[in-house]
Amino acid sequence: MNTGKLDRKVTVETYTTAKDQWGEELKTWSTDSTRWAAFEARIRPSAAFGQPEVQGQPVTRSMALFTFRNTPSVFNGEFRLNYGGKLWHPVQVAEQGTRGEWTTVVAEAFDNDGNG
């Protein structure tokens, strides 16, 4: 992997919990970090599922590969990526190289997800 290909700024968000003033647990996404990554689209949104409406399910799905330098510990927990105006949910995380020099995240995004 050529480090010159890490040309996209990707925001990594983690799922966090906090307690409100009444002790109720609040679950939210918060920004963990912004990292440089390589981005490679795998499925164009228009070619994803065909039928535009399928019983209220997401109709446009995008798949992509994000490659990061090293293996940040945040990728061991629950996280998502914010890039290109979409929220990318990880499907698979894989280390590359003999010492984990690179991490590739296969992620999917739904244009009309509704659950951001």
Walk me through what this model shows.
The chain is mainly beta and 116 residues long. It has one domain (3-47, 58-110): Bacteriophage SPP1 head-tail adaptor protein (Thrombin, subunit H, Beta Barrel), CATH 2.40.10. 0% of the residues lie in helices and 56% in strands. The chain has strands spanning 8-19, 25-43, 61-69, 79-83, 86-96, 102-110. Strands 1-2-3-6-5-4 form a six-stranded antiparallel β-barrel. The protein is globular, with a radius of gyration of 16 Å. It starts with 7 loop residues before the first strand and ends in a 6-residue tail after the last strand. The model has no long low-confidence stretch (mean pLDDT 81).
Question: How would you summarize the topology of this molecule?
Answer:
Layout: E1 8-19, E2 25-43, E3 61-69, E4 79-83, E5 86-96, E6 102-110
Antiparallel strand pairs: 1-2, 1-4, 2-3, 3-6, 4-5, 5-6
The domain count comes to: 1
Beginning-to-end CA distance, first to last residue: 31 Å
Q: Percentage of helical residues? A: under 10%
CATH 4th-level superfamily: Bacteriophage SPP1 head-tail adaptor protein
According to DSSP, the number of beta strands is: 6
Strand order of the biggest β-sheet: 1-2-3-6-5-4
Quaternary organisation: single chain
Write the element-wise H/E pattern from the N-terminal end onward: EEEEEE
CATH architecture: Beta Barrel
Gyration radius (Cα, Å) is 16 Å
Tell me the CATH topology: Thrombin, subunit H
Using the alpha-carbon principal axes, give the shape.
globular
Uncertain segments: none
Main sheet: strands, sense, barrel: 6 strands, antiparallel, barrel
Q: Can you tell me the CATH class?
A: Mainly Beta
Q: What percentage of amino acids are in beta strands?
A: over 45%
**Overall pLDDT confidence:** 81
Secondary structure category: mainly beta
Note the total helix count: 0
